[in-house]
Amino acid sequence: MYYQVYDFTRKDDDMADAFNPPGVAIPFGAFSNAAWQPPGRVLHLAGQVGVDEDWKLVGPGDMVAQARQILTNLKAILHHVDGEMDDIVSVIVYVTKMEPLMAVHEVRKEFFSEPYPASTLVQVAALVKPEFLIEISAVAVIPGVRADARA
Question: What are phi and psi of 108, to 5 degrees?
């Protein structure tokens, strides 16, 4: 089993420091149990659904395609403030069904690198529109140097 223990000697204070401590189950997908918030400005990203900038649904009936669009949307929001996907410290994922979950985790690996952000998964009966199969909200911490340059 792999355990990642917090390293108090870590020098990279510009990234979230996610970890999986001993004595707690190791996550099964692309997420960590916890993440220290690095110095910087906290950015709360509203829940995103699988639509493009014109509100056209991407991947009707395909949670994996919708997840990819959602993560692309989050990346675009972060890019606007000189943020990066690795600045995300926490996500909340709402899904209408669990079956495609492992495929969604594979998509997450395309956008996030280890250590992965902390994550909460909630299965819901429905989202705001029945064609939406997944929604993701996030919290990012933009390092001071980049955040201050945008302010």
Answer: -55, -35
92 beta partners: 120, 137
Q: Let me know if residue 19 belongs to a domain.
A: no
> Is there a cis peptide before residue 115, judged by omega within 30 degrees of 0?
yes
pLDDT in tens, 22-37: 888 887 777 777 877 7
For residue 117, the one-letter residue type is P
**Does any domain span residue 26?**
no
Residue 63, domain CATH: 3.30.1330.40
- For 122, phi then psi, to 5°, come to -130, 125
**What amino acid occupies position 66?**
Q
**Do 45 and 140 touch, CB atoms closer than 8 A?**
yes
Q: Is residue 139 part of a domain?
A: yes
Helices then strands, each counted (H, E), the chain: 3, 6
Nearest in space to 68 (alpha carbons), one of 89, 90, 85: 85
pLDDT in tens, 103-124: 999 999 999 998 899 999 999 9
Nearest to 5 by CA among 119, 18, 30, 14: 18
